[in-house]
Amino acid sequence: MRVRHWETIALVFVAMLALGVSRAVAADEIVVDPEECAACHEDQVAAFKMTPHSSLDSQGLAHEAGVTGSCAACHGDPTQHFEEGGGVGTIFAFGPDSLPSEVNGTCLTCHGDSHPNFASSSHGRMGVTCVDCHQVHPAEGEAWSALKKGDNFHSSLDADRASDACQDCHGEVFAQFEFNERHRLQEGVLECTTCHDPHEAQTRTMLGGFRQDQCVTCHRDKGGPFVFEHGSVKAEGCVACHTPHGSPNRHLLAFQNVAETCFSCHAVLPSFHSRFTLETQCTSCHSAIHGSNFDPFFLK
Ligand code: HEC
Ligand code: HEC
Ligand code: HEC
Ligand code: HEC
Ligand code: HEC
Ligand code: HEC
Ligand code: HEC
Ligand code: HEC
Ligand code: HEC
Ligand code: HEC
What gap in Å lies between CA 296 and CA 121, rounded to an integer? Predict the structure, then answer.
């Protein structure tokens, strides 16, 4: 076995091109050449060259993690690993026993600016980590891709789609996309990520709260503003009446009948409505149900 060379460098100037600043490397900073790892991890190092992270050195960004060198930027100080001639448990490995906060924290040292709210996202709060969805090292014999493939592979979904990364954990949602009335996810008209940003806090429009923003980018005519707004559309959003993924009901409605949808909020109706039943097509008269510029009752 060859002797590993790695050293503490006194003064190296790293141009932090990507950040537009330059800074001196701290006196006690550890510099690791990936070739030192290649002696034992030849395949990983070779495959790693195809990935965007292999340029960390030249970008000077690896510096952020306290060590320089593309491998050490994520795996940290390899001193113990070298001392013990490699081996499990002697270097930070993003393994099952790593704390989610350590895993995410490592990635966020560099990606914190673009994903500042991850810790308060549904995923971050439940201990889902970056590497549950992302892969850094290419899978053996495959080209690099930023996202992991779902194991639970949906027969009609291509593996290179963003939605594929959601499959293993959200099987129930995929099942909703099997209904006849559905958004055409399988056909590639949209992705899970069209409506959701998996990195964002739940309070943001993409994950929770007021969810109209994404819907009206495609369904512009439903967004208003209208002279006469339908209170529910404004206050609770589209999902007050529609299920966004898929539904056995026409028009992706949350209830089987239009009337049932209306009755879920309107208990008191004008007296001449007493003859109406669950089968009544309320929208045959209240046709501008999403809002109207002409009629306060959303009539034709
Ligand atoms: C951007 C962060 C990052 C960089 C840079 C990085 N790795 Fe990794 N490495 C990971 C993650 C994350 C895992 C855990 C595997 C997974 O979840 O895909 C891992 C796992 C490993 C493993 C153990 C698992 C396996 O595939 O056998 C080895 C060995 C490894 N990396 C070596 C290296 C070497 C060598 C370099 C430099 C050429 C390097 N890594 C650079 C993030 C990184
Ligand atoms: C002297 C050989 C040797 C060198 C040099 C070496 N490793 Fe390892 N490394 C190993 C061995 C052996 C294992 C255990 C692998 C296994 O069981 O598949 C290992 C495992 C790992 C793991 C997984 C650890 C775990 O707990 O699962 C990571 C990550 C890793 N090495 C990264 C690196 C990085 C980064 C470098 C360079 C800075 C490096 N190694 C240099 C031999 C080496
Ligand atoms: C030392 C800084 C650093 C660390 C640590 C780091 N990254 Fe990166 N990452 C980068 C840079 C730089 C790029 C290339 C960005 C570019 O080309 O725009 C990149 C690219 C990416 C991309 C690809 C983006 C694209 O455009 O397709 C993903 C995904 C990513 N990183 C995820 C991770 C994950 C997950 C981790 C933790 C395991 C991690 N990164 C750790 C600096 C880092
Ligand atoms: C639940 C799955 C999931 C988790 C967890 C996740 N990501 Fe992502 N990430 C994605 C998907 C999907 C995309 C592609 C988005 C798209 O195609 O619109 C992406 C894109 C990215 C990109 C490239 C584009 C961009 O938006 O900057 C980076 C970098 C990135 N993620 C970093 C991270 C980091 C760092 C973490 C952890 C703090 C993380 N991701 C956690 C699913 C995830
Ligand atoms: C490793 C498992 C895992 C993967 C992969 C994953 N998720 Fe999640 N997701 C979770 C967990 C756990 C929660 C929190 C569950 C809860 O609050 O009920 C969650 C919550 C969510 C929520 C919010 C639910 C709410 O009530 O606020 C959305 C939206 C979501 N995920 C979308 C996605 C998308 C889109 C992808 C693919 C890019 C994805 N997830 C991939 C595990 C995962
Ligand atoms: C057309 C936009 C849209 C698409 C596409 C979409 N979602 Fe959603 N999703 C929503 C909205 C809006 C909600 C909130 C529903 C509510 O509050 O009743 C939601 C809720 C969720 C929830 C939490 C509640 C639940 O139903 O479990 C999860 C998890 C989720 N989506 C995951 C996904 C995944 C995974 C995909 C891709 C397979 C996906 N979504 C595709 C709009 C969308
Ligand atoms: C108060 C309940 C309610 C709310 C809230 C609501 N809708 Fe609807 N929507 C309906 C009903 C009822 C129908 C069926 C109309 C019919 O029977 O002709 C419908 C039909 C639709 C249709 C298909 C028919 C058409 O007119 O194009 C689309 C698309 C639609 N809604 C999108 C949206 C969007 C986007 C939002 C949020 C901005 C939204 N809806 C909010 C009740 C609602
Ligand atoms: C990327 C564009 C896009 C986004 C975003 C989007 N939709 Fe759609 N939606 C469509 C398309 C296209 C259809 C037509 C159905 C099809 O593909 O066959 C549709 C169909 C519908 C229908 C059924 C229409 C009918 O005639 O029965 C409803 C209701 C609906 N969308 C509501 C929503 C809601 C609510 C949201 C937000 C949670 C949303 N959409 C987000 C593109 C989009
Ligand atoms: C999620 C709750 C909700 C649902 C479902 C709903 N509405 Fe409304 N609707 C409201 C609210 C809130 C107002 C505003 C009431 C106010 O300002 O007093 C309103 C107002 C109206 C008005 C205007 C008259 C008025 O009282 O201001 C009509 C007409 C109406 N709704 C018809 C319908 C019909 C028809 C349906 C079924 C297609 C329906 N609504 C479904 C909540 C709902
Ligand atoms: C034959 C046409 C017609 C049908 C069908 C119809 N409506 Fe109406 N609705 C009206 C008219 C006209 C008004 C306005 C009454 C007025 O001027 O006070 C109205 C008013 C309302 C109002 C406002 C009540 C108020 O005083 O604020 C609600 C809520 C409403 N309808 C709900 C429904 C629901 C729910 C259904 C289905 C079960 C339905 N409508 C079916 C014609 C109809």
Answer: 39
**Distance from CA of residue 288 to its chain's centroid?**
35
Percentage of the chain modeled with pLDDT above 70: 80
Taking alpha carbons only, the member of 160, 297, 156, 158 closest to residue 229 is: 297
Closest residue CA from atom 43 of ligand 2: 86
Query: Exposure of 114 by Cβ count < 10 A (0-12 exposed, 13-18 middle, 19+ buried)?
Result: exposed
Is the shortest distance between the CB of 173 and ligand 6 below 6 Å? yes
- Which residue type does 92 have? F
How remote is the C-alpha of 145 from its chain's centroid? 15
Tell me the pLDDT tens digit for each residue of 28-53: 667 788 888 999 999 999 999 889 99
The two three-digit tokens of residue 262, written as one number: 């209306």
How many angstroms separate the CA atoms of 192 and 126, rounded?
Answer: 19
